[in-house]
Amino acid sequence: MSGTFNFGKVAVLMGGQSAEREVSLMSGSGVLKALQAKGVDAHAFDPAQRDLSELKREGFGRCFIALHGRFGEDGTVQGALELLGIPYTGSGVMASSIAIDKVMTKRVWLAEGIPTPKYRLLRRGAYQRGQVVRIPDELGLPLIVKPAREGSSIGVAKVQGYSEMQGAVDAAAALDADVLCEQFVSGDEVTCPILGTGDAARALPVIRIVAPAGNYDYQNKYFTDDTQYLVPCGLPAGEEAAIQALVLKAYRVLGCRGWGRIDVMIDGRTRQPSLLEINTSPGMTGHSLVPMSARAAGISYEDLCVQLLASATLDHAKEAAIP
């Protein structure tokens, strides 16, 4: 992308109040630098330090949301921007609020025939130790325990035995009132970004992730160089195209727009994919996957940022008054 961009004054929302604040600051800094390098009048804006009403008072015409997790990716900031009438990047209020919740996402996907691992939901304060101990009998071992509404692998535990269940559930419950216990799928871990909206949305190249000891945790995502990201992904013929078609369907049924990234496990025995979750405000750090996939598709980091900013919109654009 080249030329002059008439975006007006742009706020890059970064930081915020979630457990992913540190990652958001890294994402936002990269986006800010890229937009400024393209000649965009872009400025950093941290909602944890400034009131969102200042966006209107200071004349910001659109927002690039580089916030992750709660209060940034869950429909709350999107709703505030709707009220302010300031177009923003990424999904709207409803899609964001569903997508941040891994359990609600699963319910929608399952209703639409989209495969996702089996799960059990525990609500903080409403489960007993006996229930926790029985979950491995239902889902098998190992299994995954995670907060229902956190990202960046925060609070995620791989449980290998019955004795580990209670500690993993307690740790996740400290972060979220809803705890997701999920069947573990052994096989290839991949992710696939999507750009665009509705019928115009397209899937970018699939990335295969090979983490140390198979542990793609917070540290291995952002702060080490030991994780391998394979793009081209090297999957058997036809598998990449099938995954791209599946994630496009999953993205559309949630009503997502602008961009997103869906994480997938491929069963090593059956080669059947299972969708884990969707990110509607993916990372844009030096280790992040959307820029990596976009680069493989011939889109530079700077052009990706401009393309996303150009897609900024509102759920309810102003319509002409009816006489």
TrEMBL record:
It is an enzyme of class 6 (ligase). It is found in: Cytoplasm. SUPFAM superfamilies: Glutathione synthetase ATP-binding domain-like (SSF56059), PreATP-grasp domain (SSF52440). InterPro entries: ATP-grasp, ATP_grasp_subdomain_1, D-Ala_lig_Van_CS, D_ala_D_ala, Dala_Dala_lig_C, Dala_Dala_lig_N, PreATP-grasp_dom_sf. GO terms for biological process: cell wall organization; peptidoglycan biosynthetic process; regulation of cell shape. The active site is at residues 20, 152, 288. Mg(2+) 1 binds at residues 263, 277. Keywords: ATP-binding, Cell shape, Cell wall biogenesis/degradation, Cytoplasm, Ligase, Magnesium, Manganese, Metal-binding, Nucleotide-binding, Peptidoglycan synthesis. Pathway: Cell wall biogenesis; peptidoglycan biosynthesis. Signal peptide: none annotated. Its cofactor is Mn(2+); Mg(2+). Cell wall formation. PANTHER family: D-ALANINE--D-ALANINE LIGASE, D-ALANINE--D-ALANINE LIGASE B. This is D-alanine--D-alanine ligase. The lineage of its organism: Bacteria, Pseudomonadati, Pseudomonadota, Betaproteobacteria, Burkholderiales. The gene is ddlA.
